[in-house]
Amino acid sequence: MADAISGPSYLYNLLANELSVALYGDLDKTSENMGALTMMTIKDRKAAAAAAGPSSSEAPVDTSASARDSDTVFPKLESIGYQVGQRLIERLTKEHARFKDELDRMKFVCTDLWKYLYDKQIDTLRTNNQGTYVFTDNLFRPLAFFSAEGVDQYYPQSGRFIAFPCGIIRGALSALGIRCTVSAKVLSVTCCVFEVVVERT
Amino acid sequence: MSAKGKAPLLDNNKVNADLIKLTYGALVAQILKDYEKPEDVNKQLEKLGYNIGVRLVEDFIAHHNIPRCLDFRQTAERVQQAFRFYLGFQPAVGNWAPTGNEFSLIWDNTNPIGDFVEFPDNLRTLQYSRVLCGAIRGGLEMVQIDVAITIAKEFLLGDQATELRIRFNKRLEDALPIGED
Fold first, then answer.
1. Which helix (H) or strand (E) covers residue A192, if one does?
2. Hey, which residues 23-52 in chain B have their CB within 8 Å of chain A?
3. Is B118 part of any domain?
4. What is the fold of A9-198?
5. Taking CB atoms and an 8 Å cutoff, what residues of chain B touch A119?
6. Residue span of the signal peptide, if any (chain B) (predicted)?
7. ipTM value greater than 0.85
8. pLDDT at B146 over 50
9. pLDDT at residue A21 above 80?
10. Which residue, A183, A194, B45, B103, is the most exposed by fewest CB within 10 angstroms?
């Protein structure tokens, strides 16, 4: 994407921050609810079901409904990411050769998409060959500016920054024809691990 | 931080402008879903832009060696420069009011953040560029300039250009801490 113009990422960081802060108002209220939740799992399959059409209509999961009650922000952030991911793939694959298999598409997400988004590739991609893929990014851009001091204090907040990328991965993969759930956890200050579980029907 | 530490990545701090636009578009769509009324959405976008502008101005000043603006024309130049820096698109400054306290930022035949946007007819009151207004207002407020901004033309609604009209209201005096200036 050499033709695209670029701006400093600071603007984007602010925008990403605003996504969760300005929109959904009361940050304190949400962070209280999220206090214990350092590890974040998103199972917002409803959007996936809607995108995939009626074939998967059994899937409006109860767990997501309860998660929605306790915190509405993450699913929304994730669905914003989903839309962005879907559209990005449309642009990025414009002149790309046909993909061979699932792994090929995963690789595309890890290399091309990640480079486009964060200027670097995913550091490791592992799979158990049964539909589970683990992406590890040792220096995840949205977390790179976090202070190592006071980690305990801000650790719970980091979920707000990875919900959006989770959505991007899910959206990108769904545009590539892979339906999946994506969960992520922050291992250390800057290291983020995404787990992608492909849904087989 | 060690010698081979994290610096290189952080130095290379560019992000793709398409990503910004797509994210903003998805964000607007989400706000619209939440608030439903375009008027409410405009208010939210303004607030969002304001919050961004308030912080962005610090970053801008830190990156540029900017002397104090002596009149509103210089301010206009800085705003123009900031747009080039952050969005890569430089607007034209024009349509000065004779009194020199009102000007327009004009992007001909484009909207700097609306490349992938199509407007449905029932949302014509939605101001997609409102976030820019908020950002300018927030940024200028941090440097003690109070402005009022209206969207005069909107390319996405079929106008020839996107035009933001910026009017100087007053200089904010109270915000200065004691001993400054």
1. strand A192-198
2. 23-24, 26-27, 29-31, 34, 44, 47-48, 51-52
3. yes
4. Muramoyl-pentapeptide Carboxypeptidase; domain 2 (3.30.1380)
5. 9, 12, 14-15
6. none
7. no
8. yes
9. no
10. A183
**Quick check: is B122 in a domain?**
yes
CA–CA separation, B125 and A188 (whole Å): 46
Domain extent at residue B91: 16-171
Residue A62 CA neighbour count, 13 Å, CB half: 0
Interface size between A and B, measured as CB pairs under 8 A: 110
For B16, the closest of A6, A16, A80 (CB atoms) is A6
Interval A89-106 mean pLDDT:
87
Contact by Cβ (8 Å): B99, B117: no
The string over B37-46, giving b where at least 16 C-beta atoms fall within 10 Å of a residue's C-beta and e elsewhere, is: eeeebbbbbb
- A119 — alpha (psi -120 to 50), left (phi > 0) or beta? left
pLDDT of residue A18: 64
Going by pLDDT thresholds of 50, 70 and 90, the confidence category of residue B147 is very high
- Per-residue pLDDT for B181 more than 80? no
Look at residue B111 in the predicted model and tell me its pLDDT.
Answer: 82
Phi, psi for residue B62 in degrees, rounded to 5: -65, -30
Answer yes or no: is B6 within a domain: no
Q: DSSP for A151-177, please give it.
A: HHHHGGGGHHHHHHHHHHHHHHHHHTT
CATH code of the domain containing B73: 3.30.1380.20
Asked whether residue A27 carries a pLDDT value surpassing 80, the answer given is: no
Number of separate domains in chain B: 1
Q: Is residue B2 part of a domain?
A: no
Tell me the shortest Cα–Cα distance from B179 to chain A, in angstroms: 31
DSSP assigned state of A54: G
Identity of the residue numbered A121: Q
Residue A61 CA, chain-centre distance (Å), reads 19
Sign of CA dihedral B107, B108, B114, B120: positive
